[in-house]
Amino acid sequence: MTLDLVVRIDALLPQTQCRRCGYAGCRPYAEAIADGAPINRCPPGDEALVAQLAALTGRPRLPLDRACGEPAPLPVARIDEASCIGCTLCIEACPVDAIAGAAKRMHTILVAMCTGCGLCVAPCPVDCIAMVSAGRAWSVEDARAARDRHAAHNRRLAMRASRPLNPRPSDNERMKRQAAVAAALARARARRAAVAARAK
Length: 200
Known about the structure:
Elements lengths: L2 H10 L13 H9 L11 H12 L17 E5 L9 H5 L5 E2 L7 E2 L19 E5 L6 H23 L8 H29 L1
Antiparallel strand pairs: 1-4, 2-3
C-alpha cells in the first residue's frame, strides 16, 4: 500500500462516511482498497465509482455489491423537533458534525452539511429522525467539504480521548440521569399519543 494510492482512491470516494462499505469511513475504505479489498462496496458512489476505482487500480470492474445497500438519490436527515428530547445521541453519531443542539435542548440538522449517511437514525430513542430526499445531487465540492469536516470531527474526538478521564458519576447521579431520560421519553410518548388521538 502506498500513501499516494490511498490519497488518490480517497479522492474518488464520496466522503459520505456512511460505513455501508463495512469500514469506519471513506479513508479507512480507501486504505483497505489499496491493500486489496473489493472496489465495489460503496452504494453512494454506485457503478460510476466502481468504474473509476477499476481504472485507477487496474482491477476488473465488478457489479456493485448490493449487500452493502442500494444506491439512491442523496438523502438528508430531518428531525421532528417537537418530538426531540435533547438526548444528544444523534450529535454523537454524526461523523461530520451536521447536527446542532445541546443536552435537554431541541436539535436540528444543518442540511447543507448533512451527508445523508443515516448514522443518526438508529441511536434516536424517540424515533424523531427521518431520512428525506435532499432534492439535489452530491457534488465534488460537497465531498471535499465533508472530508474536511470528518477530519476535524476525528481530531476533536482524539483530543477528547487524550484528556484525563472525568471521575465516574456516582450511582445517585447516574440514577438521576436515567430518571430524566425516562421522564423525557414518557413526555414524548404522551405527546405522540395526544397527536394520534386528535388525528382520529
